[in-house]
Amino acid sequence: MSPVWRILGLDPHSDTPVEILHVVLLGFVKYLWRDVIDNQLKKNAEKKKELATRLSSLDVTGLGVESKLVGNTLVNHYGSLTGSDFRKICQVAPFVLKGLVNNDCYQTWLSLSKLIPLIWQPKIKSLDSYITLLQHEIEQFLLYAAKWNIRWFNKPKFHILVHLPDHIRCFGPAILFATEVFESYNAVIRAKSIHSNRLAPSRDIAWAFARQNRIRHMLSGGLFLNREQVNLDPKHWVCIGQSPLDVVSWSDVIKKSLGDAGAVTGLDSADTSSSSQKWMNTAVGRLTPQTPLYTPEEKTRCTFQRAKVFLSTNGDKCSPLDFVACSDPSTNAFGIDGISVVRIQEALGCKRGIFPAKNVDCVLVEAVRVGTLASSQGMPRLTASGQFFTVSPSSIHCSLNVQHDCVQNKCQIEGKAPVRQEQENTSELKDVVVHKGVLEDWVLNTAQMRDAQYLQRFRIPVVPLSLTYVLEQSTAREWAAQ
After folding, report:
1. Rounded CA gap, 274 and 182, in Å?
2. pLDDT digits 0-9 by tens, 113-167
3. Which residue stretches of 310-433 are H helix?
4. Contacts of 94 (CB under 8 A, 6+ apart)
5. Dmax of the chain from CA atoms?
6. What pTM was computed for the model?
7. How does 279-304 read in b/e, with b if 16+ C-beta sit within 10 Å?
8. Pick from 369, 390, 371, 391: nearest CA to 381
9. Is 70 exceeded by the pLDDT of residue 355?
10. How many CA atoms lie within 13 A of 349 on its CB side?
């Protein structure tokens, strides 16, 4: 017997935390998605095509997805999806399933979309209030699932979920003990084993990582002991020459390959299609001429360059017309607990010499009002305020996912767009959703899993169900079915 079980105070039942990758994403999210394809759509070709088109037409900004969703893969190959695929699905399901599934199924998905961001929240400000909210959302999700079909509870993972609040109270945020973080390193380890002869794979992998870390240490300016010397006197510790270090400092590509996150933080991409502008020719100068982010001398003498993209504090790429979470005090009147939703209008860099601007100094944003009435997706509506502010890039924390309310405006699949393969457009066309009605009818996607600590303050609570009512109705329905 393993000596682990002889450790005093260790209870393997209560001290083994819920594994959210296999319990949630590869658990009931997979069950519900397979039910959508098999039972709700009944493998109807036209409905599956419509669902795939809705998925492919969604805006994925802020979801941690590098490219548009591939609807055909998520729908037609639903039996071979991975945890990463289900992570995408659960964040967008409320926007694509309306009208394709029955109301009980849809309400269960809405309840799930409110629960999952809480589970993946990396930072907990108030543990007691967080645990209370999490327990409530878990209870409501289970009640909605029972109202839909009580046979879901033949799956043990629905019961395992109930123990998650206790494990979070004991071990901290669930993402800290999630195996998906560690399983992502499997590909890295396999890559190091490609050139191994398989006689001693562990040794070959260890040597490969050691060589990589050694090169990273030297190119980062680290010291190492001169092997010709045997004592540990500090004067015998040396580093590589200045020329290799200069190559690293000049090339962001090398910095990224070495894992230097600071190599890209705060940098921007200048808009090469526009030349340097005088202060009053910029949107910042016209709308907020009194901004304190530039001195009067800079406004008079310097020129300014617009940026196509810059990085938020969490590393998201932000561009004009993107919605972001902002903590600048000037926008507090539109936010909750110091965080507000704004829309980027322009990002400027001051050209103080003959060289192009390197950093974004100022961001012009329009404050957005977050409504308290829920949309058909159970999420808050957004309304432009028409008030503009200049903020520092350091006050912009993350991108937010905002969708058009296609249900309210009755958007249809009427357009065509080229199919992209290998990052290029092809001559083949695919169906796309064409937005109609009020194009500024925005819905804030609070199902966004990334940066939930900023987004969850705007959530709208799920409509609560009564435990007694659900049990009576579900039992009666099950009895009648037999």
Report:
1. 44
2. 999 999 999 889 899 999 999 999 999 999 999 999 888 999 999 999 999 999 9
3. 406-409
4. 106, 109, 110, 113, 377, 378, 379, 447
5. 87
6. 0.83
7. beebebbebbeebeebeeebbeebbb
8. 371
9. no
10. 24
